[in-house]
Structure formats: structure tokens, C-alpha cells
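note to self: dont lose this again. the chain is below, predicted strucutre after it. 390 aa total, dont forget to put it in the shared folder this time
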Amino acid sequence: MPVTDPEFHFRIHATSGRARTGTLTLPHGSVETPVFMPVGTQGTVRALSPADLKSAGASIVLANTYHLHVRPGEDVVAQLGGLHRFMAWDRPLLTDSGGFQVFSLAGFRRVDDDGVEFQSHVDGGRRTLTPERATEIQWTLGADIAMAFDHVAPGQADQATSRDALERTLRWLERCARRHEELSRLGGLSVSTNRQTLWPILQGGTHESLRTEALARVLEMGSWTGLAIGGLSVGEPKPKMYEVLEALAPRLPPQIPRYLMGVGFPEDLVAAVERGVDLFDCVAPTRNGRNGTAFTPEGTLNIRNAAFRTDATPLDPTCDCEACTTYTRGYLRHLFVAEELLGLRLLSLHNVRYLIRLAEAMRAAIRKGDGALAAWADDWRRRYTQPGIA
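---
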């Protein structure tokens, strides 16, 4: 079972309803929660440098096991000093297991109890990921947090399909934990002298009974330094996601952080924090930014809109990012119309900063005590959903 380590601990500072704010301590630094993690799929957050991420206030970044395994390969990363040195990021890193990426390949994969055989999107070659290999790859990469290999079911999966994914995920978790303990004890494969912790992933689709069963069985397996909720935001209606979080909230152990995987739209972060979630990741801020969509306090804004052609105001007057303190909406629109790469970077940077500021605001509200976050969230929703944002 997982090895406990004094380098990995979580301290809660304040609560408001089910929401919490705390500090997650990891080998490469401390993370204040609730927190949004920008996604560095291939060892980079697209269009943003590590300096950009630090200027936006990012304290932890996610990298993708599947993509780094396929290209350039974990051995190449190890030869170049491990993932932190490879991507020039000296703060905490989390690597996902690759389970979601394999799930998204759909017709290019075959799943059985041993693992997953899939076709590489890079060279078309057939590859196999097992729980042991996914664990070894993440150990070699050397992130602070590694995720257990899981089987993701589609968002609208029926109970039988969700049960199958749940059972396989639990069997795979035992194998991941066993291999991770071996690597932790032997120190093999990793180029880093730092330790790594393994977090399990809860599956069960939108079926509350399966989710609560999965949680109970995961907790019976041992002591964990964190816990992830996977298989949400994969096609199910948002109210169903919130219902699952509602069902899990009173049952989740309070002493460890909760990570909701793949969720990063502002309204979902607020709703999930209210239900006790601590960590989030998503490509939404950078993907939307590259497409010209910005998050603002009043809702989303499409900077390509002709109404902004001569707009001399900042993108978001409340924001302190480079895009908002330096440039006008008219100039940002020009960059997108002219297909200049600077526009992609600036809106991506703004959106990441927006979500990090959103998490900061929620932490501040939680620290005020019971009822404060709910009042803050009601006010935020009134402003964020105002009509008329182009």
C-alpha cells in the first residue's frame, strides 16, 4: 500500500460550509488550496512559459503521462534531468495516469484486465499501458504527485458499464500501489532524489451508489495523501456532476485534499469548491484563450467581436495580468484578426490568471467563516451570468 512520507501533508486553515482552504506541502513547494492547476500536456502549458505561469500565480502544474511517454519518451526526460528540469518548472508537478487520454482514443484502443493496448497518435505504433507501466513512467518523470491508472467510462454510461470501469479501476489501483511502493522502497528508475506520492482515482460514472461504494473500498486499501474524483466532465450534464459531488462530500475524509479531474470552467470551480473540492485542472483557459474567448467577471467575452474594433478599455479592468494592464481590447482584437501569435499567448495568460484569481477570492471568502463563501458565490454568479457579453 502507499508509503506515507512527512514531505506530503495537508493542513486545513478554515472552512465555510463544506468548502475548505488549506496548504498542501509537497517536495517542490507548498500549494494553497483551493487551487487551479494549468495543464502542461506535453511538458508545456501551450503558448505560456514558466515565467508566464509564475506571473499568473501558478503554484502547481499538471503534465500528461500518455503524451510524454509517446513523445519524447520518459527515458529522454530522465536523461535531461527529470520533468522539473526538462520543462524548467521548479514548483510542484502532478502527472495524470494516462487513463483519460487512452479513453479519448476510443476506436484506437483495446481494454482488458491486464491494461490497455492502443495506437499512438504520433507514429501509429501499437503500445500497451498497464498499471505497473503507468506507475513506472510517472516515477521516471519524477513529479511530486502521480495518479493511479484508471478506466474512464463515458459520461452517460449505464450502471453496468460504470460498474465494470469501477471494478477494473480498483483492481488496477492495487497494482499501481504495489508497484509504487516497490519503487519508493528501492529508489529505482527515478533520476530525482525527491519522493513521490500516489493518489487513487474514484470512478463510478454518475451513479451515486457506485461512487460511494468506490470511495469506501479505496479508503479500505490504505492511507492516502490525496484523493481524485475522475470520470466527470466527460459528457454528462453538469447538474449530474454536482449531484455526484454532493453525494461524496460528507463521506470524503477531511484530512486529505480532494482533486476534481478535468474541470476548469469558472462556474464549475465555484460549485465544486462549495462542495468541498480542493484542486482542479483543465485545458479550458488556454484552449478558449487561443480561440479568442476570455473569462471576465461578467461572463465570457469573444475578443473577435467587431464591437471591440476601436475599444480602448482593458480586456478586464479588475485583472492584473499583462494582457489587461498593457493592451486595449481593440489591440487584442487586432491580434486575433491578423492571426498574430501574441494574441493567443495574451488571452491564454489572462484566462489562467482569471482562474487563479478566482481561487484566491474563494480562499479569502472561506477564511471569513461559515456563510461567507455562499454569500460571495451568490454575488459572483449574479455578475458572471449577466446577459449581453459578446
